[in-house]
Amino acid sequence: MEGLDGSGKSTQIKLLHHWLEMEGEKVFFTEWNSSPQVREATRKGKKNQSLTPTTFSLIHCTDFADRYERQILPLLHAGYLILSDRYCYTAFARDAARGCDRAWLRKLYDFARKPDVIFFFNLKPEIAASRILNGRQKLKFYEAGMDLGLSGNSVESFKLFQEKIYQEYLLMTEEFDFIPIDASAQPNVQHREIRAVIQNKIDLQKYKWKTRI
């Protein structure tokens, strides 16, 4: 599931995870930037504000590759459904918004298989930004895109950065066959649509736990 911060994708993937578990599916959840092997390097780089767009991109790719090799691939081979809160398309959007070459980014992640279903939670940047800003007392340096020099004001910089990311997502929609979800719709409406897509595109019977008689 892909989309801007504040688009509601994390809520929906948790609902989907719960539903699939209740249906008896073998399912595993993974999320962006969560490798314990890489987390400390990322934390130090952010704290020192020493990450360039290229080093930031490479660190995130290292995190993704570690989770891909240790979690995603082994569990796919074991017959699990994998739910990913952000995939390589987050890097394509954010890193390109930071000025990294799009072709280079796609080559960097070409080891990763394309997911069977890619949901894009489409929400106007100003609405997504307002959701984030209403729940935050302070924006982090890189979260706000302050490294790009878009604005000296963190809130204004965040809004401009989110707009750039959003435009990258729109450019990718056709290239990667994103399934758009209207992220401004009611959560229950979104969830019904997501379930319907999953049931139509995935043979869920293949992923059910086998019970012994």
In words, what does this structure look like?
- This protein has 213 residues and is mainly alpha-helical.
- The protein has one domain (2-199): 3-Layer(aba) Sandwich (Rossmann fold), CATH 3.40.50.300.
- The protein is 54% helix and 9% strand.
- The protein has 8 helices and 5 strands.
- The protein has a 3-stranded parallel beta sheet with strand order 1-4-5, sandwiched between helices.
- Helix 2 (36-48) runs antiparallel to helix 3 (53-77), helix 4 (88-97) crosses helix 7 and helix 6 (125-134) packs across helix 7 (154-175).
- It starts with a strand and ends in a 12-residue tail after the last helix.
Spatial order of strands in the largest sheet:
1-4-5
* Number of self-contained structural domains: 1
Quick one: how many beta strands?
A: 5
- Name given to the CATH homologous superfamily: P-loop containing nucleotide triphosphate hydrolases
- The percent of residues in helical segments reads 40-55%
Give me some keywords for this one.
single chain, 213 residues, mainly alpha, Rossmann fold, three-stranded parallel β-sheet, two-stranded parallel ribbon, 5 strands, 54% helix, globular
Short description:
With 213 residues, this protein is mainly α. The chain has 8 helices and 5 strands; from the N terminus they run E-H-E-H-H-E-H-H-E-H-H-E-H.
